[in-house]
């Protein structure tokens, strides 16, 4: 199966370097050091190719993208081509004046993560003293620069009690959007799942609370909620379908259908600094592997939801069912589903508190 | 949390809607279509939505927008106003339009 049209979005992970060490980080365990990152010209060439290919939206992420001194140049180049630029930052160590310069360069939107709604939580989860205050300062600078703001609240057992406070904080900071996303268990989050999996009752309570808030705050604050799929009935439509309208590029230039795709061992990825982007999008064997519906097995193949969730996440099928073309075990129609639920319930109630913090060089 | 329903912006004939800062209308040369770009999604407004959105410049009121649309579509202005008010309310609730 080949591409049905041009891609809409790219997640550009400019670097794996980050001042924080979040135990839920979705980056891979083998983090790339600075010397493996693409250079300025390589990214600029990729972004020009992206524009020509029809990409409309680029998410500049990491690691911490503001560690790249060429970030402003990237935003300017993308915005000159009319591409919507979204900066995904942890907001720690952002230098004075950067937000203003990014705004002038044409940045469209900032997504700022908070590891907790309370300072202690933010500091413990990210393992960084003073992180909360630094993030608040960044939020104010974003507003002062006239940029729109989404607060990003990645939820797990250590902060699920703070959801109400997250909503208040988003309102206080004048954010347009709040993303309350239960973390996905890949990479570091998978490693630390025992300490991070929330209890089912808490998830249900939070889901109800958010539904009320979404209704009450309509027109004032948009709240997006991502439920934890281990407890769900149906899986998430991962990446809106494998290589269907978005993909990601790792700091070293590897182009992948999603950020966990490297967990599928038989896939080989092209490098966007070496292979033209259009060629990757059309011909990459990894991109074509799970495009469309031909690769599907039962129960997905004949399921009426297959155009809604595309059979869920290929990486989760690989990690939990040992077969990347299996039905995502998060789906209640998967024969593995009960085991996944049991696993979540067990992890959520085991009382584990110790985590391995995300650091470059722990798994080389 | 205290109910904040009171803060919900309501679409009225004298509201002057505009796109919020995080939403941008963009003509995509490659697909030959107008796209509404927002942080998470790209929307492809249909012809009617597009002709409304293009008039949402923060200066024209909904009443004025309806007047222009009535001429453009040779339709009854009151009927159009009902539709446009519903459209504006829905889009405002979803934060893709500011009233
Ligand atoms: S999740 Fe935490 S450690 Fe990972 S990139 Fe984001 S801020 Fe850095
Ligand atoms: S069986 Fe497959 S297509 Fe159907 S809901 Fe489950 S994951 Fe989705």
TrEMBL record, chain A:
Q: Where are the transmembrane segments?
A: none
Enzyme kind, highest EC tier: oxidoreductase
Specify which residues bind [4Fe-4S] cluster according to the UniProt entry for this protein.
Answer: 18, 22, 25
Q: Tell me the cofactors it needs.
A: [4Fe-4S] cluster
Q: What is its EC number?
A: 1.21.98.4
Q: How is the cofactor bound?
A: Binds 1 [4Fe-4S] cluster. The cluster is coordinated with 3 cysteines and an exchangeable S-adenosyl-L-methionine.
Give the InterPro entries listed for this entry.
Answer: 4Fe4S-binding_SPASM_dom, Aldolase_TIM, Elp3/MiaA/NifB-like_rSAM, MoaA_NifB_PqqE_Fe-S-bd_CS, PQQ_synth_PqqE_bac, PqqE-like, Radical_SAM_PqqE_MftC-like, rSAM
Q: Which UniProt keywords apply?
A: 4Fe-4S, Iron, Iron-sulfur, Metal-binding, Oxidoreductase, PQQ biosynthesis, S-adenosyl-L-methionine
Q: Which reaction does it catalyse?
A: [PQQ precursor protein] + S-adenosyl-L-methionine = E-Y cross-linked-[PQQ precursor protein] + 5'-deoxyadenosine + L-methionine + H(+)
Q: Which Pfam families does the UniProt entry name for this protein?
A: Radical_SAM (PF04055), SPASM (PF13186)
- Known partners and oligomeric status: Interacts with PqqD. The interaction is necessary for activity of PqqE.
Question: What does the protein in this record do?
Answer: Catalyzes the cross-linking of a glutamate residue and a tyrosine residue in the PqqA protein as part of the biosynthesis of pyrroloquinoline quinone (PQQ).
Query: What is the protein's name according to its record?
Result: PqqA peptide cyclase
- Its source organism is Mesorhizobium denitrificans
From TrEMBL, chain B:
The record, for InterPro entries, names: PQQD, PqqD_bac, PqqD_sf
Pfam families in the cross-refs: PqqD
- The residues that cross the membrane are none
Note the superkingdom of the native organism. Answer: Bacteria
Q: Which UniProt keywords apply?
A: PQQ biosynthesis
Q: Which GO terms describe its biological process?
A: pyrroloquinoline quinone biosynthetic process
Q: Which GO terms describe its molecular function?
A: quinone binding
* Gene3D superfamilies per the UniProt record, alphabetical: Coenzyme PQQ synthesis protein D (PqqD) (1.10.10.1150)
What pathway, per the record?
Cofactor biosynthesis; pyrroloquinoline quinone biosynthesis
Q: How does it assemble?
A: Monomer. Interacts with PqqE.
Q: What is this protein called?
A: Pyrroloquinoline quinone biosynthesis peptide chaperone PqqD
